[in-house]
Amino acid sequence: MTGTFITFEGPDGAGKTSVLQALIPRLKAQSQVALNLTREPGGAKISEKIRDVILDPANTEMDARTEALLYAASRRQHLVEVIKPALAQGDIVICDRFVDSSVAYQGGGRQIGTQAVLQMNQFATAGLEPDLTIYLDVPVQVGLDRIAAHQHERQYDRLDQESLAFHERVHSAYMKLVADNPMRIVTVDATQPLGSVVTAAEAAITKRFPSLFG
């Protein structure tokens, strides 16, 4: 792999979508190579169909391990179809969520074990890890308040049915990932105004990969 793989992570309400919408044009204007934005779950035809099943609010009976396996399956197809080909030709790939999300949400939030979920995803990805992860951090209640304030502007999904305790477990799992991966994960305070968050994320990326931007 000769390309550069960057992921964005964060709990619900961290503002990843808004940050990426503002950030990607700025990065593309500086990038010396092709830059691709994609997302998980989804990003490829089959992966998007799996996403629909996972997030369908009617699927309340879905088992936690079934959910984790579906995320891993969606990720594998996305990796094979989209991420690996782009990296193979030297592109930059920026992905909205990756394995860290499964570790935090299914391993921590669903309480099926972070190591078990990590191992499952190592099989799915054949060990591929991001070169850099930007983690947008907000306190749990702040994130949930943001979601409530903008509930009419986004699609309601199964995760919106979860309790405060679930989201607190997700946040704790993310904090553990940050502590365990200090070289890969850069934390950005997402309680700042949007412009400040975008600027901080841009600085973290361009500083890490100076030969790719400028």
TrEMBL record:
Keyword terms: ATP-binding, Kinase, Nucleotide biosynthesis, Nucleotide-binding, Transferase
InterPro entries, A to Z: P-loop_NTPase, Thymidylate_kin-like_dom, Thymidylate_kin_CS, Thymidylate_kinase
Record-annotated Thymidylate kinase-like domain positions: 8-199
Membrane-spanning parts: none
Keyword rRNA-binding: no
Binding site for ATP: 10-17
Species this chain originates from: Lacticaseibacillus zeae subsp. silagei
Catalysed transformations (reactions): dTMP + ATP = dTDP + ADP
GO molecular function: ATP binding; dTMP kinase activity
Protein function: Phosphorylation of dTMP to form dTDP in both de novo and salvage pathways of dTTP synthesis.
Protein name (database record): Thymidylate kinase
NCBIfam families hit by this protein: DTMP_kinase
Coiled coil: none
Family the entry assigns: Belongs to the thymidylate kinase family.
Pfam family name, one: Thymidylate_kin
EC number of this enzyme: 2.7.4.9
Gene Ontology biological process: dTTP biosynthetic process
Superkingdom of the source species: Bacteria
